[in-house]
Design a protein that fits this description.
The protein is of the alpha/beta class. The protein is built from seven helices and five strands; from the N terminus they run H-E-E-E-H-H-E-H-E-H-H-H. The protein has a five-stranded mixed beta sheet, sandwiched between helices. Strand 2 and strand 3 form a beta hairpin. Pfam families: RNase_T. Keywords: Exonuclease, Hydrolase, Nuclease. This is Exonuclease domain-containing protein.
Length: 213
């Protein structure tokens, strides 16, 4: 009975802590921009090949916090993924165990805002991998730079042309430099920079809260 009461108290404390964090302006939050390279687009059947992330505390992106890991082995079925991100079997000779990377990411993400370009896809792979390795991710919120930009263009009554919501295309509208696309680390950094550009342009340093998702 005591253990049950303690569990409830911990859940209530966690809920209150999250509520207090969500009440803070967006500039007071901590962010983790993440990108995954995968062997396909189906989280149920395809594999994570590489993981990269970088931490941000507005207005700064902490490049020293950047991490990049290949987690698949050379025996992993790459399908058509080399066409997209360029990784081939020889790039997977020295890898870090996925469970080890997931546990490190779990600590980094705890209480932070997860930032991705098409967050639904990356989140699906993270949840699937976490379930397989008994790792539960608890970000404060999830922020999708792609969805933000799409909604902004829609609200401005812009026609959304094919390819106009790629990470590269979105960055170009904010005058951000172009990086080599489809490498997890450069894409994570590019996504983090885009998020800062988006929010500073449309929210500024005002005490604006992030929308819940």
């Amino acid at each position: 009975m005591a253990a049950h009461s303690s569990g409830w108290r911990n859940r209530i404390a966690a809920w209150w802590q999250r509520r207090q964090a969500l009440a803070q302006p967006w500039t007071a939050q901590r962010y983790v921009a993440l990108d995954l390279e995968t062997s396909g687009l189906d989280a149920r059947h395809d594999n994570i090949i590489a993981v990269a992330w970088v931490e941000l505390t507005p207005p700064l992106l902490d490049y020293q916090s950047a991490r990049y890991y290949t987690v698949a082995t050379a025996q992993t079925e790459l399908n058509q993924s080399p066409v997209v991100h360029g990784l081939v079997s020889r790039d997977l000779q020295q890898v870090t165990p996925l469970a080890e990377v997931l546990h490190e990411l779990q600590q980094v993400l705890d209480g932070a805002v997860l930032v991705c370009h098409h967050v639904q896809l990356d989140w699906a792979f993270l949840k699937q991998a976490g379930k397989a390795h008994q790792v539960r991710f608890k970000p404060l919120l999830r922020f999708d730079t792609l969805t933000f930009e799409g909604q902004r263009l829609k609200n401005s009554q812009h026609h959304i042309q094919r390819g106009s919501l790629t990470l590269s295309a979105c960055r170009s509208r904010y005058g951000l430099p172009q990086y080599d696309a489809h490498h997890a680390l450069s894409d994570a950094i590019a996504c983090g920079e885009l998020m800062l550009a988006q929010l500073y342009k449309y929210a500024g340093a005002q005490a604006v809260r992030l929308p819940r998702s």
